[in-house]
Amino acid sequence: MSFGEQMRRRREELGLTRQALADRLGVSVSAVGNYETGISAPKEEVLLRLFDALEAEPNYLYRGSYRAASGGHSSRRASCSSTSTGYLFLNAVLPEMGVISCGTGNKYGHPHEETLSILRDAKVDVYRTDLQGTITIGSDGQNYTVGTEHFAADSALNPTDPAASSTAQQSYIGNVNSKKFHLPSCPNLPAEKNQVLFSSYEEAVEAGYTPCSSCIK
C-alpha cells in the first residue's frame, strides 16, 4: 500500500474529511487530495504536522514502501535542493538510502552541498542518477537490493563525506546472474544491466554472492 493510500485509510479511520485534515495541516483540500493520490508530496513542515494530525508514526504511513529518501519524485522525498531536505524530516522518516534524481551538469547545481552534508550526517547511503544513470530497487518484501546503470565511487556520490575517499575502494559490483562480485577494475565485469552495487565485501557475502577469483584474492 502506498503512502497516499495509507494516509487516506488512516484519515477515514479517524473519521476525518479531507477538509478537516486540510484545516489541521494548513493546506488546501486539493493539496490533501494530491497527497492521497500521489500527485504531489507534502513538504517537510506539512509532513510533520501530518504525523500528528493522523496520530500515526512515520513507519505506519510508509509501511509497504522502501525506506528510501528520493530526490524529488516520491512521497518519501529528500530534495536535491538545499532548501528542502532537513534534519527534522530525516529524523522522522529515518531512511536508509537516498536516491537523488538530477541531470549531469544541471544548471541548478543539484545536488547542493548542504543537502549532501545533511544526508551524510543522517548516515544515508546516497545514489545519484547524474553519476549512476538508471537506479533500480528490487525487494523480496523483507530485504532490498539496488542496481545502477553505471558505477560511481562513494567519494563521488557524496564528496562531503570525509570517509568516502578511504572507503571507496571497498565497493564491489555483483553479477545478478552468476552471483559473483568483482572489484570495479575487474576485466570480467558483467553487462551494466546485470550489475548490482555493494558497499562492502561483507554486504556482498551476506547477499549470497561469492568473490570473483580473478580480481579478489
Question: How would you describe the overall organization of this protein?
Answer:
With 217 residues, the protein is an alpha/beta fold. Helices cover 35% and strands 16% of the residues. Helix 6 links the parallel strand 1 and strand 2. Helix 1 packs across helix 3 and helix 2 packs across helix 3. The longest helix is centred in the first third of the chain and has 11 residues.
Key attributes of the depicted protein:
single chain; alpha/beta; 11 helices; 4-stranded mixed β-sheet; 9 strands; 3-stranded parallel β-sheet; elongated; 35% helix; 217 residues
Task: Write a brief structural summary.
The chain has 217 residues and is an alpha/beta fold. The protein is 35% helix and 16% strand.
Report the uncertain regions.
70-83, 165-169
Question: What's the gyration radius in Å?
Answer: 19 Å
Largest sheet: 4 strands, mixed
Span between N and C termini? 44 Å
Helix proportion:
25-40%
> On the 0-100 scale, what is the average pLDDT?
80
Question: How do the strands of the widest beta sheet line up side by side?
Answer: 8-6-7-9
Number of helices: 11
Oligomer: single chain
Quantity of strands, as a count: 9
Q: Which structural class is indicated by helix and strand composition?
A: alpha/beta
- Please report which band the strand proportion falls in: under 5%, 5-15%, 15-25%, 25-35%, 35-45% or over 45%: 15-25%
What form results from the Cα inertia axes?
Answer: elongated
The SSE string, one letter per element, is HHHHHEHEHEHEEHHEEEHE
